[in-house]
UniProtKB/TrEMBL annotation:
Keywords: DNA-binding, Membrane, Transmembrane, Transmembrane helix. It comes from bioreactor metagenome. This is HTH cro/C1-type domain-containing protein. GO terms for molecular function: DNA binding. It holds the Pfam family HTH_3. The chain crosses the membrane at residues 82-104, 124-146, 158-176, 182-198. InterPro entries: Cro/C1-type_HTH, Lambda_DNA-bd_dom_sf. CDD domains: HTH_XRE. The keyword Translocase does not apply. Residues 7-61 form the HTH cro/C1-type domain.
Amino acid sequence: MEFNEKLQQLRKQNDMTQEQLAELLYVSRTAISKWENGKGYPNIESLKSISKLFSVSIDELLSGEELITLAVNENRSNIHKIFGLINAALDLAVIAFIFLPLYGKSDGTYIHSVNLFSFTDTTPINLAIYWAVFTIIIVFGIAQFIFSYIEKEKWQGLSAKFSFIIEAFSICFFAAAKEPYVTALLFIQFLIKVLLLKKSAQMK
């Protein structure tokens, strides 16, 4: 008997609905339905909770092959999570672009490096775009951390993709605005994200 059949049998033997089991395991009813239909496995923590709830060992719940599959899936999920956290940290690192002296300000004779608060040698529209771009990237970074914490992998992935697109736009924009330091730093971040995206895709 496969895990999905065992879980369904245990639930019915204990007169539980999928909703009731989901509440006890702190997961969604959709997750229970997915497990019972053989479309996935719970993570290690949920598996321990199922084992404790129904007073059965994990070995009784899963066959050797299923345990290997679960371990592989768990390992893959953890690596994706790490990649996501690195991506989020890169986005939050953009905060430094506001405070570091990366922008050239002319006093008529010399060009001094200043931070974004002191930078005035551009049009008001361009300056507004600078602030908007950095704010959006930072917000996406925060969103990725939150989605990672509450284990919303799909939303974390979407946030990372939108951040990727915004960063590609920002590189082109800052290059056109002749801001070499910001452009170079954003480009380095972008390359790291490309590598993470490539590694993540290879593991699917």
